[in-house]
Amino acid sequence: MNQHLIDKKRLTGALFLTLLVAAAQGQQATLNPDTVKAGRFDLGKMWTFDNPPKEYFRQTYNFSPDDKWFEEVRLASLRFADYCSASFVSPGGLVMTNHHCARESGVAVQRKGEDLVNKGFFAKTGAEERKVPGLFVDQLVRIEDITSRVQSAISANTSEQAQLQAREQAFDDIKKEYQTREGWKGLELQTISFYNGGRYSLYGFKRYTDVRLVFMPELQLGFFGGDPDNFTYPRYSLDCSFFRVYDNGKPLQTTHYFKFNPNGIRDGEPVFVTGNPGNTERLKTTAELEYDRDYRMPYILQLLRNRSSALQAYNATVKSDSIQNEIFSFENSYKAYNGQLAGLRDPYLLARKSAFEKQFQADARSKGIDAARLTVWEYLTSNTLQLRKLFNDNTYLAPNPLAQGEVLAFAYLLALYGDAINGQPQMADRIRTMLEPPVVKSRSLEEAYLAAHLSEVQTALGNDDPYVKAALGGRSPKEAASYLLSQTKLTNPAFVNDLITKGAMAITTSNDPMLEVARQAVKRYQTASGSARQISARQEVLRQQLGRLLYDVYGTSFPPDATFSLRINDGVVKSYPYNGTIAPIMTTYAGLYDRYYSFNGKAPWSLPARWKNPPMALLREPMCFISTNDIIGGNSGSPIINKNREAVGLAFDGNIESLPGSFIFVPELNRCISVHTGGIIAAMRHIYKADRLITELVGAPR
User: Fold this and answer.
1) What pLDDT sits at residue 83?
2) What's the pLDDT at 701?
C-alpha cells in the first residue's frame, strides 16, 4: 500500500487492518457499515466467579477446571484497598501487586531521612516489614445470588426515581439481614450489579487490615519510561511490589496462593487474569457512544490537557514531587481518554457496535421477547438526544474547582446559596455546609485555571453568550482572569461571612465581579442540571432494562460489564503487528539497557546507581510479556496464572490499541502487558540480593 495515499498514523489499529485487508484483496478501501459484523467477544471476557465459564474453557483450551479450581483461584485473589488488585503468592501471606499500587504505601511508612519511592525498599528480615496505616486487602469468601429479591422490589414501583430508591433500600435491607447470618458475620458485605441490573449478587469479603510492606523497587524501575512509554509495547518496567498480611501479629498462614513459576510462559499458551476490573461500558448503545464521542470525551480531554499544562508551567518554578505526581495523573488520564476517543471515532468499531445491536434485537425477537421491551433502544436514543442539548449549560457552568479554579467555583456555590435561601431551604442548608472561603495557594496557578475555563467557554458557548460577555468584559481570557482575581473579595473570610450573614439580598446584589459572573451561570446551570438529573435517572432504569434483556436473551454466554468486582478472564500469549513490524511476545533486560543508553540515561529512562553495571546473566532474563487477556483500570496488580494455578506474570498495563476497551474488546490487537515472574526473580537475585524472598517464592536461590 502506498503510504502517501494513506497515512497510517491517522488511522486507529482496527480500521487500518480493515483497509489493509481490503487493499490486499484489490478492493476499494471504503468501509461499508452494512457488511461489518459484531465480534464474538465485543462485550469482553470478564467472567464472574458466580458463573465461571467451565464449558467455554473446555471448548476453547481443552481445559476442564472443576469447582475446586475456581474456588482456589478466587481465594488466592485479592482486592488491594479500593483501587487495585493483588494476590497471595506464598503460604506465608505474601501479597503481590504493582509498584504503582504501592507508591502511596511506600510514602506512608517512610521514616525521616528516607526516600522509599526513589530509593526502593526491601525488608531483609520479618522484623523489618513495615505496617502500612489504613491499608487493607479483601478476600472474596462468600457469594449469594439476590437477583429475584432486588428485581421484585424494583418492579413494585413505577417511576424511575422510585425504582432506584427501591433498589437501594433492598440493598440496605439485604446487607442488614446477612450481617447476622451464620457464615456471613464479621464479613465486609457489598451488593454487586451485573448486566446493569440483569443480575445481582451479595459478596462477603474477609478483610485483612494488618498489611506490611516487604519489597518495592525504585520509581525509576517501577515506572521506567514514564508517561511516554505508558500504554505502549515493547515495555521495560519492573512494576511490582510485595506486602505481607499479618493475622494476630504473625504472618498469615494460608493454603490459598499462587505458586511462582518463573519459567511459565510460552507462545500460544493459555493464561488467565484474576482481578477487579474497574469499569467498562460495553453495553452502551451506539447513540450513547456517539454522545461520548461528540461531547463528553472531547470535554474531558480539553480539561485534562489545559490543567496539565497549567500545572507543568507552575511546577517549573516550584519543582514539587506532589505536583509532579498530579501531572503524571493528568497525563496518564489524557492518554487513556485520547485512546478511547480515537476508538469512538473509528467508524469500523462503531459499525461493530451497531452490528451487535441489530443482532441483539434480532435474537430477542426470535426468542419471542415482548415487543414492548424492544423499545428500550428508542427511549435510550431519545434521552441521549436531550442530553446533547443540555450538555453545555450542565457541564461548562457547573461549579467545579478543577474546571474554573477555586475562587470562581466558590462564587458559583455562593450564588447558588443566595438563590436557594428563600425558595429551597433544604438545598440552602446543604450548600451552607460547603461555604468555606477559598484559600488560593498560588495566584499564578489559580489564574491559569480560570483563564483556561474562560477560553473553553468562549469556544463552546460563543462570544455572544451572556455568561461569556459577563466573564470576559471585552478582555481576552487571560486578561479577564487576571482582572477578576485582582478585584474579587471572595478570598477574604470577613467579606464572605458578612455576605452570608446578611443573606439572599446581599449575595444577589453584590457587585463583586466574581459573583456577578457566577450569577450569570447559576440559573442556567440549575435548569440544565435539574433536567439532566431526571433524564439520567430514566437512563439508569432503561440501562437496567437493557441489561435484563441481554441476560434473558443470552444468559451468561456474554460476561457483564466491569464493576470493580472479582473476575477471571482468559487469553493466550500472542504477538501482534505494530509499527510496521511484529511485537515480540517477551522483552528482556537487555532491552531495558538499550532504552537507557538510547536516551543517554535521561529521565524518564534513567536508572538508579545499583542498576547501571548489571551482571551479564541479567541481560538475557525476561522482563515483560504480552497476552490477549481483557483488562482495564482496576486490574492493576492482577496475577496472570496458568492452568496449574501458578503465577507466571503480573498485569500492569495495556497497549495503545487496548484503550477502546472501555466500550469494545478487540482481541485481534488488544494486548495485556505483564511483568514476567522470571523477571521479578531475576531482579531480586542479581540487583536486590533479596534471597529471603526468592526462597519464599521459588525455593533456595541459586
Assistant:
1) 96
2) 66
Q: Are residues 525 and 596 in the same domain?
A: no
| 300 and 266 fall within a common domain | no
Q: Report helix angle 443-461 to 376-396, nearest 10.
A: 130
Q: Is there a single domain that holds both residue 111 and residue 238? A: yes
259-260 vs 646-654, strand pairing mode: parallel
pTM, full prediction? 0.90
- Write the pLDDT tens digit of every residue in 675-701: 999 999 999 999 999 999 999 999 976
The pLDDT, as a whole number, for residue 2 is 37
Q: Phi, psi (5° rounding) for residue 251? A: -55, 135
Same domain membership, residue 124 and residue 92: yes
CA nearest 200: which of 537, 661, 563, 634? 563
Question: Contact, 233 vs 109, CB < 8 A?
Answer: no
How far is Cα 655 from Cα 657, in angstroms, rounded to an integer? Answer: 5
| Cβ-contact 363, 554 below 8 angstroms | yes
Q: Find the domain containing 479 and state its range.
A: 286-534
C-alpha separations of 412 from 263, 291, 328, 398, 510 in Å: 59, 27, 29, 8, 13
Do 500 and 627 fall within a single domain? no
Element (H, E) at 534: helix 513-554
Mean pLDDT, all residues of the chain: 93
Rounded-to-integer distance, Cα 523 and Cα 537, Å: 21
- Residue pair 352/42 in contact (Cβ under 8 Å)? The answer is yes
237 and 309 assigned to the same domain: no
**Single-letter amino acid code for the residue at 522:** V
**603-655 residue pLDDT tens:** 999 999 999 999 999 999 999 999 999 999 999 999 999 999 999 999 999 99
Report residue 24's pLDDT band, with 50, 70 and 90 as the boundaries: very low
Question: Measured between alpha carbons, how far is residue 75 from residues 52, 56, 80, 632 in Å?
Answer: 14, 22, 14, 21
Which uninterrupted H or E stretch holds 204?
strand 199-208
Check the CA dihedral 502-504-510-514 and report its sign.
Answer: positive
Residue type at 397? L
What residues contact residue 486 under an 8 Å CB cut-off, 6+ apart? none
CATH number at residue 249: 2.40.10.120
Grid coordinates given for 63 = 481445559
What is the pLDDT at residue 125?
Answer: 97
> What's the pLDDT at 702?
62
